[in-house]
TrEMBL record:
GO MF, one example: ATP binding
Similarity section: Belongs to the peptidase S16 family.
Record: active site: 234, 279
Top-level taxon of the source organism: Bacteria
Keyword entries, A-Z: Hydrolase, Membrane, Protease, Serine protease, Transmembrane, Transmembrane helix
Record-given protein name: endopeptidase La
Catalytic activity field: Hydrolysis of proteins in presence of ATP
PDZ domain mapped to chain residues: 111-186
Cited InterPro entries: Lon_proteolytic (IPR008269), Lon_Prtase (IPR027065), PDZ (IPR001478), PDZ_sf (IPR036034), Ribosomal_Su5_D2-typ_SF (IPR020568), Ribsml_uS5_D2-typ_fold_subgr (IPR014721)
NCBIfam families: SepM_fam_S16
């Protein structure tokens, strides 16, 4: 009898322990990710070599289990976020991940544009359609479209830009039907929707989607950027620096290990990102000597200020450099003495 009780107790404890590994809580946990060298990821045809490295930095994020929740409560530089702070009300994990991948795709396009124009080389685009980034709950697209769908025809028409797409749909009368042709999971699908007034702009009609352009950049020499499953727009600045460095004879790395973060707009503006503290920790662990952080024009709560505070806290020797634009980063590197 005692043996039965003993084995039953062990079994229950084992089930509880194993369950703690897989049972998810209504939270996301984030922690320092990695600092990844960019030269294996980005290849400009016949591009120049570099002695040092540019690195992108990442944050690891996933649904919290019982164990990861408790760990995040104890460990510094691990953060917990309620699900509703990460996902929209009707958004799934898959839709969120799709959105992050397409934000990454836009980031790559902007980085290529900025780098090639800085190098004095022309940039052209081939418009292919639009990507659905998000769907507005309660609007016609809700339940018919999802993040990651690529729309390439409306009523059988193809358009030369997303502006033309928006204008065509916006000219319809309330209740008018439009037929969308789109790709999902490499399969062509169609959806018939009736346009409605937009919630935030009731004097205009639409189908209720947030979108980004699906376009292919045309540059010479060609460039390839392989990001696999890395999502989000925060590597934009570092992408542009790596591409530009491969396009120009002078090696901007000068033998240093250079990490950083920040979105990049087509005009070269560097924007703020989330998880800057965790990225500082990741870059320090990877041996980075310099870290570019979005300055946000000197705002008191800027990424740069948070990065400096974290750098002091972890006692890193890494130099934290504030940047507002791509040119700020290039100017700093041009003045940097060779290692």
């Amino acid at each position: 009898m005692r043996k039965k009780i003993y084995f039953s107790a062990i079994l229950i404890i084992a089930i509880v322990l194993i369950g703690g590994l897989f049972y998810t809580l209504p939270f996301y946990v984030t922690k320092p990710g990695m600092a990844k060298e960019l030269h294996p990821i980005i290849k400009v045809e016949d591009g120049y070599k570099e002695k040092g490295n540019f690195m992108l930095t990442t944050v690891r994020m996933g649904r919290a289990t019982i164990y990861s929740y408790l760990e995040a409560k104890i460990k510094k530089y691990e953060e917990l976020y309620p699900v509703e702070q990460v996902l929209d009300k009707t958004e799934t994990d898959e839709e969120y991940n799709a959105k992050q991948l397409y934000l990454m795709a836009q980031s790559k396009l902007n980085a290529i544009d900025v780098a090639y124009r800085k190098a004095g080389l022309p940039v052209n685009y081939k418009y292919k359609g639009i990507y659905v980034v998000d769907v507005v709950p309660g609007m016609p697209a809700d339940g018919k479209l999802q993040a990651g769908d690529r729309i390439f025809k409306v009523d059988g028409h193809q358009f030369p830009s997303s502006e033309k797409f928006i204008a065509y749909v916006g000219e319809k009368n309330k209740g008018a039907q439009v037929t969308l042709t789109f790709m999902r999971d490499k399969k062509t699908k169609t959806a018939k929707l009736y346009v409605q007034p937009l919630k935030k702009q009731p004097n205009r009609v639409g189908i209720g989607i947030y979108l980004v352009d699906d376009k292919e950049v045309k540059v010479n020499p060609p460039v390839e950027v392989k990001t696999d499953e890395i999502g989000g727009p925060s590597a934009g600045l570092m992408f542009s620096l790596e591409i530009y460095n491969q396009l120009t004879k002078e090696d901007l790395t000068k033998g240093y290990q250079i990490a950083g973060t920040g979105t990049i707009d087509v005009d070269g503006t560097v924007g703020p990102i989330g998880g800057i503290e965790q990225k500082i920790v990741a870059a320090d662990k990877a041996g980075a000597e310099i870290f570019f952080a979005p300055n946000e024009k000197g705002a008191k709560d800027s990424n740069y200020r948070a990065a400096v505070k974290t750098a002091k806290d972890i006692k890193t020797k890494m130099k934290i450099v504030p940047v507002d634009t791509f040119d700020d980063a290039v100017t700093y590197l041009e003045k940097l003495p060779k290692k």
